[in-house]
Amino acid sequence: MPKNPSAPRAAAIVGPFMSGKTSVLEGLAFACGALSRKGSVREGNTLGDCSPEARQRQMSLDTSVATVTYMDESWTFMDCPGSVEFQQEVTGPLMVCDAAIVVVEPDPTRAMMAAPVLNFLQARKIPHLVFVNKMDGANTAANLRPTLEALQAWSGVPLVLREYPINEGDHLKGYVDLVLERAFHFNQGHEDSRVDIPANLKDEVTLARQEMLEAVCGLDDVLMEKLLLEELPSLEKIYETLAMGFQTNQIVPVLVGSAEKDGGMLRLLKLLRHEAPEYTATAARNEIPAEGGEVLAQVWKTVHAQHIGKQNYVRVWRGHIADGATLAGVRVSGMNKLLGQKQDKIAKAVAGEIVALGRMDPIKTGEVLTLDASPLALAWPEQPQPVMPISLKAAKSGEEVKLSSALAKLLEEDLSFHLEQNVETQERVLWGQGEIHLKNAVARLKSKYNVEVTSEKPLVPYRETIKKSCEI
To answer: Residue 378 contacts by C-beta under 8 Å, 6 or more apart in sequence?
Structure first.
């Protein structure tokens, strides 16, 4: 289907811990030609999860960013941590993305783990699709419908299955496109191959397509009348209504695949290309005026990179930013596109792009940058309340000042930390979201800022008081 090239767009990859989000990022980058060879989480050589702590734990601890090109269109994918202790890392990407990819496993018992992110997406009306990953295991096809029924309990809008899996034993061979009523086999590194719909799946495919059509027609009264009269809408009208429903957050498309084995990556890219909204719609959703020529960009993440210094990840909503420009009274010193750890220096960023701006020390996450002397203060979600403390002190004598500086950078990168100096116990207490969150902070202080610390449970300042009167 011919399509005019889009402005740069962005998608956040979210979902429960261990659902395979990092493999999805790897698969998308490989499908776009940004990688010559795929890495794996087990081998610790993926595009995302670049920090030594993430590779050691084999779990995402930070948002990984990759800007790639697909069919002459620029896409930025942001792979977010799945653990509840790192949910602060999910907020920024979801606030600036055009659409979210919710990655889940075909397991109804784990569906509730996607509830927090589904609630956030629904509350902020962020267009999103569900990608059922790891469909290449035993019983995955049988688990698909129960999984979607379990997810529907947590989704405020209907989940609409767009594909039906073709499994042979424990292997996912391909899918049936329910709109086109055509079957395809995955062909690693190449376009999917057209095949006949397997005879044993025809009844299931017919039922699934009817359910999909009912969901589509439920968005348009005229189409529903035609469906009741057994008049099928045209393919063009079906695609048009599906895209409208996705963009307005009235339906949630559901795709299936196996990211680790390249199954479904091209299909996912094609759906996003044709149906995801433009950046102007995202700006309007966030009540940011995207019209006009004056520069306007929003900081959604702050990073203190080794050998580079402080960087602010921004999405440009309006105008264009040139390296060396002055925004919010601070001069931009270096501008880069991101592909995991790799950074490519660029001279200009246009509306819709996500880039890293260098050495803008006073600028903080959530601020909106314009040509004015100070940043704009627009609505930004509040950071979660910390739940667990540890007491920190430098392991080596004379490094307390160095520790203070490192902690200030740590708190600037992750807003869900809270630091306090307890007056009664004279301890420096760091509050976080849980045990792994705090252990990661201690490890990062050593690996990234070269400050070794000792940590322990904070002292409890017991107090005494008079309970009753007495005579002496």
So the answer is: 286, 287, 288, 298, 366, 368
Token pair recorded at residue 420:
């306090």
β-strands 354-358, 309-318 pairing: antiparallel
Residue whose token pair is 């499908």: 31
* Beta carbons within 10 angstroms of residue 249's beta carbon: 19
420: three-class secondary structure by DSSP: strand
| SS3 category, 436 | helix
* Start-to-end CA span in the chain (Å): 96
Reduced DSSP (H G I as helix, E B as strand, rest coil) percent helix, strand, coil of the chain, to 5: 30, 25, 40
Q: Which residues pair with 335 in a beta bridge?
A: 357
Q: Are 351 and 320 in contact (CB under 8 A)?
A: yes
Residues 143-202: pLDDT tens digits? 999 999 999 999 989 999 999 999 988 789 999 999 999 999 998 777 899 999 999 999
Nearest to 178 by CA among 144, 210, 214: 210
**Per-residue model confidence as pLDDT tens digits over 410-465:** 999 999 999 999 988 999 999 999 999 999 999 999 999 999 999 999 998 887 88
Q: Which of 3, 467, 90, 23 is nearest to 264 (CA)?
A: 23
Kind and range of the H or E run holding 89: helix 88-96
The residue among 51, 49, 53 whose CA lies nearest residue 40 is 49
* CB contact at 8 A, 218 and 197: no
Q: What is the mean pLDDT of residues 231-250?
A: 93
**Is 293 a residue whose pLDDT tops 80?**
no
166 Cβ neighbours under 8 A, 6+ residues apart: 172, 173, 174, 175, 176, 183, 185, 198, 201
Q: In what order do the strands lie in the sheet with 453-456?
A: 418-421, 428-432, 388-394, 453-456
Query: Using CA of residue 319, residue 321, residue 322, residue 325, what is the dihedral sign?
Result: positive
Residue 232: name the closest of 265, 200, 209, 203 by CA.
Answer: 209
Could you give phi then psi for residue 430, rounded to 5 degrees? -105, 125
- What residue type is 340 in one-letter code? G
Judged against a pLDDT cut of 70, whether residue 310 lies above it is answered with yes
Total-model pTM: 0.94
Instruction: State whether residue 400 is helix, strand or coil.
Output: helix
- Nearest of 255, 259, 253, 258 to residue 238 by alpha carbon: 253
Q: How confident is the model at residue 375 (pLDDT cuts 50, 70, 90)?
A: confident
CB 100 within 8 A of CB 127: yes
348 DSSP 8-state letter: E
